[in-house]
Amino acid sequence: MNANKDDRLKARSQDFHLFHALMMLIMTMLFLPVIGTSKQNIPRLKLTYKIYWPAAKERVELCKLAGKDANTECANFIRVLQPYNKTHIYVCGTGAFHPICGYIDLGAYKEDIIFKLDTHNLESGRLKCPFDPLQPFASVLVDENLYSGTAYDFLGKETAFTRSLGPPNNHHYIRTDISEYYWLNGAKFIGTFPIPDTYNPDDDKIYFFFRESSQEGSTSDKTILSRVGRVCKEYLCFEDR
Ligand SMILES: *[C@@H]1O[C@H](CO)[C@@H](O)[C@H](O)[C@H]1NC(C)=O
């Protein structure tokens, strides 16, 4: 009786393996033609649009004088690249430790792609973009507002959350208070995301995820804490968990 049951189980498991193998074969045969032909149907992405945007020469010299590496630090490394509106992308680069931002014009019509940096409207990238190409950093652009969690000094020690930009011709800028030093303590930013709160989009919140060293307890205590900061999108409030 027992042996019988074992055999039946074994047979069933073999059946199962066979079934599995067959299914795999059928699936492969089903998908092979798709894989085979799809290659010809996908148009190759042509990378014909390029923007040449080096750091200013004098900034590169100053950067090198400060002991930074000419190739890996004293150039314009892009850290922000976010859609601003239907026709423009907002872009910031480290500008050889002198952050700089501007708009890339995409053109109004699909047939008529422009893809050009508007060099007449460049602006300071301080508090929007880090100085250092390797600095941990987070930013997101929502409703024409740029939210950044960034270091904003040459040494990369001072950190802040900021909101900048806004609708064209009505730019506002706010940041976490300098005097309230207990808000951020050498934060290392990881990511930032808009997250809905209720059915009302006005209630959406911007969440910042970051790490920082603990400020509680003695100075010898170097505990690193994971933190979440939350900024309201409409009226301004800031909470730190
Ligand atoms: C998008 O923003 C740019 C820069 O402010 C502005 O010049 C342009 O007119 C805007 N486009 C639309 C469709 O609002």
TrEMBL record:
This is Semaphorin 3D. It comes from the Eukaryota. The gene is SEMA3D. One of its GO terms (molecular function) is semaphorin receptor binding. PROSITE patterns: SEMA (PS51004). The keyword Transmembrane helix applies. GO terms for biological process: axon guidance; neural crest cell migration; positive regulation of cell migration; semaphorin-plexin signaling pathway. Residues 1-241 form the Sema domain. Signal peptide: none annotated. The chain crosses the membrane at residues 16-36. GO terms for cellular component: extracellular space; plasma membrane. InterPro entries: Semap_dom, Semap_dom_sf, Semaphorin, WD40/YVTN_repeat-like_dom_sf. Keywords: Glycoprotein, Membrane, Transmembrane, Transmembrane helix. PANTHER family: SEMAPHORIN, SEMAPHORIN-3D. It comes from Cebus imitator.
